[in-house]
Each structure stands twice: as structure tokens, then as C-alpha cells.
Amino acid sequence: MNVLLTGGLGYIGSHTAVVLSHLGNQITLYDNLSNSTEIVAKNIEKICGQKINFVKGDVRNTETLKHVLTSFKIDSVIHFAGSKSVAESVKEPIEYYDNNVQSTISLLCAMRLAQVKSLVFSSSATVYGDPLYLPFDEQHPTNPISPYGRSKLHIEEMLADVAASDSEWCIACLRYFNPVGAHDSGLIGENPKGIPSNLMPYIAQVASGLREVLNVFGNDYPTRDGTGVRDYVHVMDIADGHAAALTYLRKHPSWQSINLGTGQGYSVLEIIDAFEVASGKSIPFRVVPRRAGDIAEFYSSTIIAQRELKWKASRDLINMCASTWKFQTQLTKS
Ligand code: NAD
Ligand code: UD1
Predict the structure, then answer these.
(1) Which domains does the chain have, with CATH numbers?
(2) What atom in ligand 2 is closest to the CA of residue 200?
């Protein structure tokens, strides 16, 4: 299959590119490099042992996208490109709606022009908002609390309308929980610009000595040790989930939202312990007040992903930490 990955040089896109290439697909990566570099393309090629197609471009450029879709004879698109910081979205909502919602409209227009009607979209567990019950299943009401989360929900709703208007469209919205970890080679991984806002990359930078101490945001939550609990899922499992979604879409036209998580939550202190074991480093931390907008605990129901996609996460927490550490040490060396 010929697959276009928008945002294909980003964290999740690059890992998915490796998985799809290993499965024999012809992949084309389309990225404006706003949060990545061309080195990632070289590293994907190293891992895959073959040349891959990379086109530098912005998803909001409908004409270029249409040209790429037709000239590479694309069968399916996976749409990773977008902006993903919750805090930034509160400060810059217009930019977020532009780069998430507007860019998806541009992609849909290009796909319609090129007659490509199979799409996997990167959504997020953040669409659920505060849990009314756990685990979050796909029927849980959606009530996102940030512009970022609302942009993801608007896109999901838009995609549902598109699928309802024309039975040839096949669309899957994958709601990721907390993707972490890196490819076993240590060549690709999550490399945030500036101070990491997410837990795992922050811990990795503390372990490598780039940062002095981890701030633990609150230890007075109603959880087993008072710190926040999340469903961390290995990025290679997430990548496998995309391959499963493409297979699923070939047999199931229409629209579906599906969670990608493990079903298991870990607290901040449990992540620190696991990272210390995996890296052999100690992680100094201090408890500071809660971060505004944080939820005490959430994790995924895995029933729909198992039943529809035949997908189940298989990599454990130590693997998530060890691969993150391997990537971090290679980054620090280079
Ligand atoms: P990322 O920032 O690493 O990757 C996104 C890529 O898209 C980057 O390479 C960036 O340069 C590119 N890009 C951004 N805007 C673009 C545009 N207008 N045109 C072309 N390229 C553009 O992010 P990621 O962690 O790989 O996330 C991928 C997707 O998954 C995003 O849509 C994100 O919202 C979603 N998501 C991520 C997480 C997570 O924890 N990483 C969780 C839930 C959902
Ligand atoms: C954040 C985003 C969410 C996104 C997800 C995965 C917010 C409110 N939500 O979720 O939309 O889908 O990342 O990218 O930003 N923590 C610390 N110290 C730190 C960093 C985090 O204690 O330096 C704690 C947090 O309080 C939380 C846990 O670690 O309990 C995980 O945090 P994080 O990695 O930022 O993910 P989420 O908050 O789940």
C-alpha cells in the first residue's frame, strides 16, 4: 500500500513510518519541519535500510498536498501533523485552530480532489476531559478542557460528518493515551524543543544531567501514592496500532474513534522508580504544587481496539523507560 504520513518526521510519525515500511508499504513523509528535522528522515532510512520519500511542505498548502497524493499514487493517509502543547494552545488558540482544524480541512480538500478516501487521524485521550468513570471507553462523554483538546474533538466531529456524507470514506480516529519510549535502535525518539512539558522526556533529561531535578506536580491526589496516574503506552505499540488501523479500514468503511492505551495506569513515583531501574541513574525530585488543569488519574479501556483492530499493547514499562534512556544517551552523545 502507498501511505502518506503528514507530520511523518515527528515523534509518533517517525516510529509509524518504520513499522509500515517493515510491513512492505511504500511510505511518503510530508512535514514542514516546524517540530522536527531532516536528520529524522536519515535515521528512518538507516533503520529501514532503504530510501524513503520525504516532501517538505505544509498541510495547509492544499495544492502541494494534492500533487503529492496523486504523484505518489497514495492509497491512505495518516494525519499526524499538528500542534500538541496544551499550555501553548491556551495562549495561542488561533494558531492551534489554524494548524489543527484548518490544516485538516486543507487535507480533506486535497484528498477529495485526488480521490483518496482512507484516513487515520491522530486524536487524543484529552477529548474526554475529567473522567465520569474509569477506564475511559469510547462511549465516555467528551468534554475537553483546553483549546488543544477542543481542536481534536472538532476534527473528529468534522471527520464523522465527512464519512456520513459519502460511504466511500473510511476514517479512524485513534485516541492516544500517553505515548512514551523510543525505537530499540535509539536512533529515533521524542526530542522536545526547550523545556519538556511531559513527564518522560523530563525524567530522561534529569537522568542525563541536562536538568537538575524533576518537579513532581502534587502528591495529594486521590491516587494510591498521591501522584498523578496515567496510561503510558510504548510508541512502537502506538505505531503497530496504526498499521492495524490501515488494515481495518480496508474492510470497514465509515468512521470510528478508537482508544490506544494499555489499560494500566502508573503514578509519577512509579515511573521514577522504573526509570531508575532501566537507566541505573538516580532521579532527584521534589514535590511542588499541582499543575493547573491536571487530572488525578485516567487510563484506557482496551476492548474496542482489541475487538476491532485486533491490537493490544505488548511492551512493558521497563521497555518504555529503557528505550527512552537509550535514545536520550545517543542524543546527549551527538
Ligand atoms: P510531533 O510534534 O513530534 O510531530 C508532529 C509533526 O508534524 C512534526 O514533525 C511537525 O514538524 C509536523 N507539522 C506540524 N504542523 C505541520 C503542518 N502544518 N504541516 C506539515 N507538518 C506539520 O508530535 P507527535 O507527538 O508525533 O504527535 C503526532 C500527533 O499525535 C499530533 O497530532 C498530536 O496532537 C497527536 N497526539 C500526540 C500525543 C503525544 O503525547 N505525543 C498524544 C495524543 C495525541
Ligand atoms: C499531557 C497533556 C495531554 C497530552 C499528553 C500526552 C496536559 C494537561 N495534558 O497529558 O493533552 O495528550 O500530555 O502528550 O498537559 N508530571 C510531573 N512533572 C512533570 C511533568 C508531568 O509531575 O515535569 C506529572 C503530571 O502532573 C501528570 C503526569 O506526570 O500526573 C503525566 O504528565 P504529562 O506527561 O504531562 O501527561 P498528561 O498530563 O497526561
Answers:
(1) 2-182+232-261 (3.40.50.720)
(2) 34
